[in-house]
Design goal:
About 60% of the residues lie in helices and about 5% in strands. It is an alpha/beta fold.
Length: about 290
């Protein structure tokens, strides 16, 4: 399913020329205002020319400004309906919001991020990744910072069902892990921007060793995606008080769950046995609540 224009602009922003990027930022900052603007007014907002606006529209997949503005109007209307349905006047958090407002707005954005990521996810890519992981001799998962937490989550899940999987935290250990992968292995790199050095280096090395490489990123044209055989794209968005690290985490964890369950289904009997064995193993670590 095709992404709406606002999702597409966020994903393509890093690849646009500087003047085109200013136009995209103007649209993302005030989509409703741009809907009401002429091409001349949008050019003035972005400090560029009408010709550059036309080039920008073509760069993001439209014949010209009228078609772009129609699609933007539809996306803006959908967004307004979603906000109204959620009882939120605006999506951004501001300094006067109450605790109720903050909780409602964050819940709205996180639920929407998961829904949008699921709706736009390439299911063929998900299936290819799941098939490879289910049959892999070993899996290496690489990321740092907030994305590193996603890596730890995936490694824990896969290890729990009996797969050999590691998610080293140290960048040097990530490289040594990737260097030991082979044609029967899978390497997964996780980075919201797709520009983080560590997972890019690890995935590049793993690919050189013959492993199938999978990227989980918000930007399908990013450097990380360029060294991946399979790309699983999230659609997280930043807001004033939710940086990329915050907004990406919920989308990445959703993708990890999608992947894990499809892997587990392919190893159904082994999964059931492994989950029971690991569940039984940790029961002695639980406190007895009986009085």
């Amino acid at each position: 399913m095709a992404a709406d224009v606002l999702v597409r602009l966020r994903q393509e922003l890093p690849t646009l020329r500087p003047a085109e990027a200013r136009i995209a930022e103007s649209v993302l900052d005030d989509p409703a205002g741009v809907v009401a603007s002429t091409i001349t007014e949008l050019a003035a907002r972005a400090g560029t020319s009408q010709a550059t606006v036309v080039r920008f529209c073509r760069a993001v997949g439209y014949a010209g400004y009228p078609e772009f503005r129609i699609d933007l109007a539809q996306a803006t209307s959908r967004r307004a309906v979603e906000l109204e349905r959620s009882g939120i006047a605006e999506g951004e958090i501001n300094e006067t919001d109450t605790a109720t407002d903050v909780v409602s707005k964050i819940a709205f954005h996180e639920a929407r991020t998961i829904e949008e990521t699921a709706r736009l996810l390439d299911l063929d890519a998900l299936e290819r990744a799941a098939e490879a992981v289910a049959q892999a001799s070993q899996v290496g998962v690489y990321g740092v910072g907030s994305s590193g937490l996603t890596c730890q989550d995936l490694a824990q899940k896969l290890s729990r069902i009996g797969l050999v999987c590691a998610a080293p935290v140290d960048p040097h250990l990530q490289l040594t892990s990737a260097a030991l992968l082979d044609a029967g292995s899978v390497a997964v790199g996780v980075s919201h921007t797709g520009t983080t050095v560590e997972p890019h280096q690890a995935l590049s090395l793993a690919r050189d060793r013959g492993a199938l490489t999978v990227a989980v990123t918000n930007f399908p044209s990013s450097p990380l995606a360029s060294v991946a055989d399979v790309v699983l794209t999230t659609t997280a968005r930043e807001t004033r008080f939710r940086s990329g690290a915050m907004s990406s985490r919920i989308a990445q964890l959703a993708v990890v769950d999608f992947l894990f369950v499809r892997v587990a289904q392919r190893r159904y009997d082994q999964t059931a046995a492994a989950l029971k064995a690991t569940y039984d193993a940790v029961q002695q670590r639980r406190l007895d609540q009986r009085r």
